[in-house]
Design brief:
Radius of gyration: 28 Å
Helix content: 10-25%
CATH class of one domain: Mainly Beta
Pfam families: IL17 (PF06083)
Strand content: 35-45%
CATH superfamily of one domain: Cystine-knot cytokines
Number of helices: 3
Number of strands: 6
GO molecular function: cytokine activity
Organism: Xenopus tropicalis
InterPro entries: Cystine-knot_cytokine (IPR029034), IL-17_chr (IPR020440), IL-17_fam (IPR010345)
Subcellular location: Secreted
CATH topology of one domain: Cystine Knot Cytokines, subunit B
Order of helices and strands: HHHEEEEEE
Structural class: mainly beta
């Protein structure tokens, strides 16, 4: 970096460099932030903490019932969990079940080829974050989630002659 004026004389440029360093060090980190508003020509939100919790009150009747931690392992149609992550959705992380085997287990834990496993699906409500112009908004959406697996007899299809 050359710190000279048009006459070739040295000038004080360390103030400019110091201001640049100060500006860079005070710029907030953009890791994990939604920057779509910048590409749409929207001004960056001021004073908005995107990691700030949003309070939503849902009045849902009934009590949730906790299942045993090992129910997925004790089932005759055992399943494993994977996690679906989406930072523009609440909840951002949703556990999804996947049947471990195509067939069910018998009482001794051996595969029973006469009985099939099928996923149990449940529709849930999630909040989807969207940008409407330069304003963030939230939309209620339905999402189908596999919550477990169960055993069924195989379908028998009759052949037409």
């Amino acid at each position: 970096m050359s710190c000279t004026n048009t006459l070739g004389r040295p000038i004080m440029c360390h103030v400019t460099l110091l201001l640049f360093i100060l500006g860079v060090s005070t710029t907030p980190s953009v890791h994990g932030l939604d920057l779509h508003h910048l590409s749409k020509g929207c001004p960056p939100p001021r004073g908005l903490n995107l990691n700030q919790p949003i309070k939503v009150t849902l009045n849902i009747s009934g009590q949730s019932q906790a299942l045993g931690k090992d129910i997925s392992k004790r089932s005759l149609a055992p399943w494993d969990y994977s996690f679906d992550m989406d930072n523009n959705r609440f909840p951002s992380m949703i556990a999804e079940a996947k049947c471990r085997y195509a067939h069910c287990l018998d009482a001794e834990g051996n595969l029973d080829l006469d009985v099939n496993t099928v996923p149990i699906k449940q529709e849930i409500l999630v909040l989807r974050r969207e940008m409407k112009g330069c304003t963030p908004s939230f939309k209620l959406e339905k999402k189908m989630v596999t919550v477990g697996c169960t055993c069924v007899r195989p379908e028998v299809k009759e052949q037409q002659q």
